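Quick question: what would this complex look like in 3D?
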Amino acid sequence: MDSIEEFSVRGRLADTGEGITADELQLAARNHGMPLEGLRYDVTPPGLHYVLVHYDIPATNAGDWRLELNGCVEQPLSFGLTELRAMGRRTIRVTLECAGNGRATLQPRPISQPWLQEAVGTAEWTGVLLSDLLRLAGIREDAVDVVFTGADRGVERGVVQDYQRGLSLTEAIDSGAIVAWEMNGGPLPPQHGYPLRLVVPGWYGMASVKWLRSIELIDHEFDGFQNAVAYVIRQNLDDPGRPVTRIEPRALLMPPGFPDFMSRHRFVAAGTVPLFGRAWSGWAPIERVEVSTDAGVNWHEATLDALGNDELAWRAFAYDWEATPGEHVLTVRAYDASGREQPIEAEWNRGGFSNNTAQRITVLVT
Amino acid sequence: MDSIEEFSVRGRLADTGEGITADELQLAARNHGMPLEGLRYDVTPPGLHYVLVHYDIPATNAGDWRLELNGCVEQPLSFGLTELRAMGRRTIRVTLECAGNGRATLQPRPISQPWLQEAVGTAEWTGVLLSDLLRLAGIREDAVDVVFTGADRGVERGVVQDYQRGLSLTEAIDSGAIVAWEMNGGPLPPQHGYPLRLVVPGWYGMASVKWLRSIELIDHEFDGFQNAVAYVIRQNLDDPGRPVTRIEPRALLMPPGFPDFMSRHRFVAAGTVPLFGRAWSGWAPIERVEVSTDAGVNWHEATLDALGNDELAWRAFAYDWEATPGEHVLTVRAYDASGREQPIEAEWNRGGFSNNTAQRITVLVT
């Protein structure tokens, strides 16, 4: 083999009963989810927050980092970290989730990063409002989309690229996106975009371009690989599909009791078991969470914590379960203020995106 | 099913051609390796350092944490974090590697945490020498082994347990082990043992008990599950085997060029390609690293960085490769000052431990 295309092919679906492949395992060993006991923390410690890196973590240096802002602007600008810091300092709490979360539980399974349900995390990101940067440069009338380019280089399906995503100008401004240089009060860890990244509240993680080096306003709809080809919800290869955008509602329980090492099966003692978890949606605040302890036959409303200032960050919920001996299946679902409700089983799609199928935890009560 | 034993069974070997199982994927999604570009850093940032948690990360609190020191001592002692900090402050740079690193590349594959080759990391750990604590309590003549117990509870092969490992009294003292409350200058992250853990330089990670709450000196050899059953190198179930102890020599290259997203295949442009990596051994300092760019036919000595103060921490190496168009297989091997050399192919064992088979990276030069 002597061409890049031969080594870089379109994703396929797993055959019936096909185990996780060597390619999927390579990705699972590099990238990681948040162990579900990480739901315990209001703000996820950096090493527990999920990470998905498309290519390699690039070698970067805050000292000489430049962010270019150009295209359909009155005045192209270039910023170093010092200049950005001088522009202000805004901290927002954001729940980020990978668009592929839940992919490996789909039937048939799209072969890619094989997430189960833990590709999530909540962090406090500090930076400057993207809209402030755009206004400083002066948005020209012909601007349509905003294109963000990272320093991470790789190839997907034969296309050599620097990771790049576009947002409409409206979303770039209205989403409250920030250009961030801190995570949880410290410099960004390398795997989260050091020294500079975009953070787009409410959107799946692919929009929050890491190692951000360029912002370009363009006069047409962005048709780059990650927008037009990769992150698209389609039923088959001919389906034009619709883009992956905001995070669908989801609730996750912190699995109670203690686990078996290998099967991760859970064991708890009979009695009152306080169940706890978090729920989020990128569309609107969470307004209701329901818990079932009998595999979805009966549902009980959980108690929700007060809504914080950052309305799209996850919300804690709790429910006291009177656990009786035997095997039980816990499940949970979230409802948001936009009227969206989490399905028991989400609709399948070929890329395995936005799969917010309800979590199921089997527990043996002893 | 209504007993813990039914859900918690002995590990098995994968069938020929059997893909990674759902159980293995659950572990791979929770635990994570160090993406190999993390070899770039002398000290691994916490979120990039490998993590293996047997059960759940426990809920812990530095404020009321107690470490009990008892058993065959003159005077049982109990320490809070403040008391430990008052005893001194020693910082050591340690390379930790999971004993199961490389497991998923074995044939047949032992089914457990499916590491490829990235279960490693180097950190600066700050704490107090274990030997200082033991001397303060007064080691009795009858003391044989030292047992370390963490706050993490779970079940393995039907045995409900708090994670617990033993070291001989000699190793506990001579290894230079510390009881650490800082990693890389900050509090331990939850997944690395917050607020207190043991760090045993030179030993595979299973010895460095996290969430450390008890140190007990006993008058016999420790026969707990993790020493006598789990971490044992055996060829079959009847083999009494030998314990997993110190880290076998290994070298890893930072894969050059850029990757394909899915296959992780690498691409570089022809010309001089600076290869860089790290090598380590838990037995003695690394004294030689060899690189091959033709799948092991010819070997070239790499340039080693100066040996640091912490002789068992990894050592950087470099080699300039004159890359010509076509497909090439890079491989690398390490030699330490004890006379141990890394094999091209390590011996198989049923638990998949200490697999230091040489890394192979296929690169397409364009």
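Answer marked as accepted. Helices of chain A lie at 4-7, 22-30, 81-86, 130-137, 169-174, 225-230.
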